[in-house]
Amino acid sequence: MRILHTSDWHLGKSLETKTRYEEQQHFIDEISDIIDRKNIDVVILSGDVFDTSNPPAVAEAMFFNSIVRLAKDRTVPVVVIAGNHDSPDRLLAGAGILRPYGVFIFGKPGDTVPEMKFDTYSISTDENGAVLIEKNGEKAVITAPMPLMPIYKGMPGASMLAEVLLQKYEYHVPFYRQVKQLEHLGVKLSKNTLDGWFRPVCELLRPLYLELRKKVLAADYFQVDETTLPVINHDRHKAVKEYIWIVRAAVPRLPSSITTTDRVHKKLRSGF
C-alpha cells in the first residue's frame, strides 16, 4: 500500500504583510499531481492544517476545496489529524460532511469513524479502537488506541512514575541523584522533567491521600510528630519556618498521613 504522508500546511500563515495563499495552493497542486503519478493509495495529513486555531475564511475554503480534490472522487482515502496549531473542534465541525467524499478527520486521541465502504476501499474501527483502511487486499492501521498516559501530554507510564516517587520518599533518593542513576541506564532525563512530573502525580494520588486521612482520623488513638521546614512566603517574599506534621494511627496501625503547615494541621485535628 502506497501512503503519502504530509503535514504542517499552516494554511493562513503570512510573512509580515504578505500572504502565502498562492504558494500554498502550488504545493497542494503538486501533492495532487503526485497522487496521480505515483498511484497513491492513502493520504495522511498529520497536523497543523492551519497556522492558528482561528484561521481566516480564505484558508478554510482552501482546505475544504483542496482536501476533497485530493480524495480523487472517493478513490483515495484522506485522513486528517489535528495538530497543536489547529482547533480540534473546528476541524471536526466539518467531519460529517466530508466523510462521504472520502475525507476522515480526527481531532483528538480516541476519535473513531463509522464503518464505510467505497468502490475501492473500506474504513472501519476495530474493537480496540484502531482505525483501519482496507484497500487492494491490504490493511493499514491509520490510528491506534492511545497508551495509558497518567500525565497529560506526558510520556512516562504508571510504573515509571511510581518508581520515581518510591525512590524519593521510601529510599530518600533526591531527583538529581535519580537523574544520574537513569543516565547509567541510558535514559536521559533532566531534573526539571522529574520536577514537572511531581505535581500531576501528587494530584493523581490525592484521592488515596484523602481516604487514608479519613481512616487515620477515624482511629481512637493516633500519634503526631513534627519537623521544621523552610517554606517560601510569597507575601513576605522570603522563606519562613513551617512544619511537616506526621500523623499516624497507632490502633489500627496505618501508614502516616502528612500535612505541611500549622494551618492545615489545625484543620486536620479539628473535631477530634
Model description:
- This protein has 8 helices and 13 strands.
- A 4-stranded parallel β-sheet has the order 1-4-5-6. A 4-stranded antiparallel β-sheet has the order 7-8-9-10, with no helix packed on it. A 3-stranded antiparallel β-sheet has the order 11-12-13.
- The N and C termini lie far apart (70 Å).
- It is elongated.
- It is α/β, with parallel strands linked by helices and 272 residues long.
- It has helices spanning 21-37, 57-70, 88-92, 95-98, 158-169, 175-184, 191-217, 262-269; strands at 3-6, 14-15, 18-19, 42-46, 78-81, 103-106, 116-117, 121-125, 131-135, 138-143, 221-233, 238-251, 257-259.
- 36% of the residues lie in helices and 25% in strands.
In a nutshell, what does this entry contain?
The chain is an alpha/beta fold and 272 residues long. It has eight helices and 13 strands.
Distance between the termini: 70 Å
Number of helices: 8
Q: How do the strands line up in the largest sheet?
A: 1-4-5-6
The main pleated sheet reads as: 4 strands, parallel
Mean pLDDT: 86
Low-confidence stretches: none
Coarse morphology: elongated
Tell me the series of helices and strands, N- to C-terminal.
EEEHEHEHHEEEEEHHHEEEH
How is the topology of this model organized?
Blueprint: E1 3-6, E2 14-15, E3 18-19, H1 21-37, E4 42-46, H2 57-70, E5 78-81, H3 88-92, H4 95-98, E6 103-106, E7 116-117, E8 121-125, E9 131-135, E10 138-143, H5 158-169, H6 175-184, H7 191-217, E11 221-233, E12 238-251, E13 257-259, H8 262-269
Parallel strand pairs: 1-4, 4-5, 5-6
Antiparallel strand pairs: 2-3, 7-8, 8-9, 9-10, 11-12, 12-13
Helix pairs in contact: 1-2
